[in-house]
From TrEMBL:
In the RecBCD complex, RecB has a slow 3'-5' helicase, an exonuclease activity and loads RecA onto ssDNA, RecD has a fast 5'-3' helicase activity, while RecC stimulates the ATPase and processivity of the RecB helicase and contributes to recognition of the Chi site. Heterotrimer of RecB, RecC and RecD. All subunits contribute to DNA-binding. The gene is recD. This is RecBCD enzyme subunit RecD. The lineage of its organism: Bacteria, Bacillati, Actinomycetota, Actinomycetes, Propionibacteriales. Belongs to the RecD family.
Amino acid sequence: MSELFEPDGPHDHRIAAAAPEGVLRAFNHAGVLTAADVQVATRVTGLAVLADGRGAEDDLALLALALCVRSVRSGSVCLDLDTVTVSTAAPDGWDWPDHDTWCAAIDDSALVATGVLHRGGSLVHLDRYLREERQVADDLRVRERQPAPAVDLGVLEHGVTRVFPAPEDEEQRTAARHALTRRTTVLTGGPGTGKTTAVAGLLALLAEQAEHDPRGRAPRVALAAPTGKAAARLTEAVAESAQRFAAADSERVARLVQGAPATTLHRLLGARPDSSVRFRHHRGNRLPHDVVVVDEASMLSLTLTARLLEAVRPDARLLLVGDPDQLASVEAGAVLADLVAGFGDATGRESPVVRLRTSHRFGASIGALAAALRDADVERGTGPATGEPAAAERVLGLLRDVRRRPGAPVDPTAPVGFVAMAEPATEGALDEALRPLVLPTARAVRAAALAGDAAAALALLAEHRLLCAHRSGPAGVAAQNRRVETWLAEEDPGVVPGGSYAGRPLLVSRNDPGLGLANGDTGVVVRAPDGAFRAVFATPGRPRELALSRVGDVETMHALTIHKAQGSQAERVTVLLPGPESRLLTRELLYTAVTRAQRSVCLVGSEEAVTAAVGRHVQRASGLRERLRAAD
Ligand SMILES: Nc1ncnc2c1ncn2[C@@H]1O[C@H](COP(=O)(O)OP(=O)(O)OP(=O)(O)O)[C@@H](O)[C@H]1O
């Protein structure tokens, strides 16, 4: 998201002290461009002007370049001239140029002449991202043109109805047929719609195909995900999902997965110490696998997708699995959402997109709330857009039915709850609202940890999550950690706020392969029988126990950010909304938060905050959608 900042003063590090008078300086001081945007744009323009033999660059081209750098920094792949002028106020004394004037200035610039910038319609790309976008679209087209994989359709039909026999399994049958008979499948669906189970079914069916082929060998399968945490979950999740199948099929899945535990995409592609964007596997040294499955594909950046597509053999099956409505990658690009928008839904024969719609996990009302958020029909743009009031009203309508005042008794088991706060919420009101939702679990975790029962403490910890949009501020993670620790300490002097104590929930903040911990792993401090404190983590397979002194990069996790919670779930979730002015508060953020809940979710915040979230839909600027549409 393109965030504005408010300069703290002339010495704010985001202010470019050396920027010459002119357009960049004005946009920097207005908080639109950071010092880094200005410096990159100034330096690159200097080189382009030299190479092109001109005296100077036009201000409007310079501004476009700096805004391109800003766009990429904030997750877009390019600058959209039309939306930036609508979503961002120009500094005092400056007006946004009109579209045609700006386009003409860019087209005549040294930046375009030297290939730094490329303009197509209202989109302006930096060279690298244009090349990657083209490459992704071209590689997908090459894959489409490959002959269909050889499949015994009789065996397939028999297998599909065996693996997914129930009438309500129809979506998964369609997904499995698609993935078996095509080179590329983009499998999308909200949480609990059976994506992992569909992947497990696909693996069983592929193994069966190989058994019926006299020359066949078991397919070489790669399971991967963008993050270590998601990869660690994947192997287990696939094997667990296969438990639904008959023994022969779950054994087929177990055999394939055993030989190929899931890994991060970086590791699969062959990370190189000398580069973060180049890998050992590429067009000249393809991956050997026959099937490549990438889970949590909403976190794929454009660059990583480009590297993946050039490394996968064109005749291998590629399956991208994820929920395009969730928060996108930290880096530039929202490839999964672009694939869905660009190809459209699976009704068109040529679309690789297959969508699972039926949730097998949510109670009806969490599903209804998630659907109202996902389908809120708002105007789309790269910046915050004002949603139709009807969309917010639909969401608020659902919430008003379950609304409570702070302090009123909350049923923590109700599928959806809403503790309606006044704006701005006072500390007292926040205390009153959060205490009944959060404290019982924190207390129970502490009791189990004091008793040395690590398994019980971890199970209780997984029962509830308090999610915040921000790390800091009154509705942020740090303040909630302090709040819960203060409550615990009031009841029990053994709890030292800010220190380590039995029952302190932990969140790993960095991958540590040496300790067997992945960024995002959760754990708890437990008192061992000898009285020493140990950290126990809920790592895949079995819990990992470590001396406290060995554990470095961990944070206290009475609360965590919604970004960090992405990819994980808890039985009960409490979402503390920031004020409506928060720029992080978007529909994607609220959808991601709500869909972390397996059994019940309670929102704590104002109606204004809910309305602001629903109305703020951030779509990242990208040309990929149009490129894919054009490739039809
Ligand atoms: N066809 C089905 N009928 C009934 N239950 C199902 C079906 N498919 C999956 N499930 C169950 O629904 C739950 C969610 O399935 P699964 O984990 O495959 O979904 P998912 O989309 O991968 O979820 P997430 O991405 O949120 O982890 C699991 O408990 C699974 O056993």
